[in-house]
Amino acid sequence: MKAAQFSRYGGPEVLEIVDLPDPHPGPGQVRIAVHAAGVSGTDPKLRSGELSFGASLPQTTGSDVAGVVDEVGEGVTDVAAGDRVFGISDDHAGVAELALLTYRAVIPPSLGFADAAGIPVALETATRGLDQLGVTSGSTLFINGASGGIGSTAVQLAVARGARVIGSASAANRDYLSLLGAEPVTYGEGMSGRVRALAPGGVDHALDVPGNGILPELIDLAGGPQNVITLADFAGAKEHGVHFSNGFADGNAFGSLATIGELVEAGKFWLPVDKTFPLAQIAEAHRVIEHGHVRGRLVLIIR
Predict the structure, then answer these.
(1) Is the residue at 113 inside a domain?
(2) Which of 38, 201, 231, 278 has the most CB atoms at less than 10 Å from its CB?
(3) Strand, helix or coil for residue 66
(4) Dihedral sign (CA 17, 19, 20, 22)
């Protein structure tokens, strides 16, 4: 099968399309013919060597996938060959013609493959963050970095729970955040003042998505480090006593894959695909996501 991998750490140019052996599912796994694969903000960090999780080279890439089941492993009863599914690629190997999935669900009927491929990691991460913060009806939540894939997802999930959401983004994304149900503020100098103009007493919770070094501001807005979670600022979390949410270490929310369909079909959840790329242009997709200011998700079309 064709798959993307890198044999050395570096910029997008280290990515290459290679031939790898076809995988086959073990117990509890399914194999899918991949139609689309999402590109997440973590992918360039793994490719550059900024994050490694102890993996050795060469490495494949990509977690978010959507496609059609073509082989099932022992004990699988939730899906069957021919089903359209989306989920998390095992071994971070989703940018390929075939992928193995342990965590998966049937794609909601109204979604195509590209739309579905953008959802899994953002959905799990956002759900985990909201659960750990204890966001419920009546809460006021501030989301730092609310217009990307995880931020957009967190906004809508929190609104669906009945929370009031204030979100930061660029000036160009203010209308987009309003459409999702958030009250937008522009990030940058003076952001805390703009949040307090909307919530004079501060907020109940703060979710830091990009990890851009503003945890002290979030702690002040939320009334203490216990009310803040960061998804990306590991060093800052240690320094300021904030919880760093890590699905490998403190539980996951993969069960959300099976329940998001209800919100999708009710018109209460939508994660836009900003741009799509053919498999051969994976390096360009990495360049775009590293540049930032992506609204929603970037997706590679595999077939």
Answers:
(1) yes
(2) 38
(3) strand
(4) positive
Distance CA 68, CA 55 (A): 28
249, burial (CB in 10 Å: exposed 0-12, middle 13-18, buried 19+): exposed
pLDDT tens-digit series, residues 137-183? 999 999 999 998 999 999 999 999 999 999 999 999 999 999 999 99
Which CATH number is 213's domain given? 3.40.50.720
Residue 190: Cβ within 10 Å count: 10
Residue 292, pLDDT above cutoff 80: no
Query: Within this chain, do residues 83 and 161 fall inside the same structural domain, yes or no?
Result: no
Q: Name the residue range of residue 68's domain.
A: 2-119+271-301
Residue 82, helix vs strand vs coil: coil
Prediction pTM value: 0.93
CATH number at 13 reads 3.90.180.10
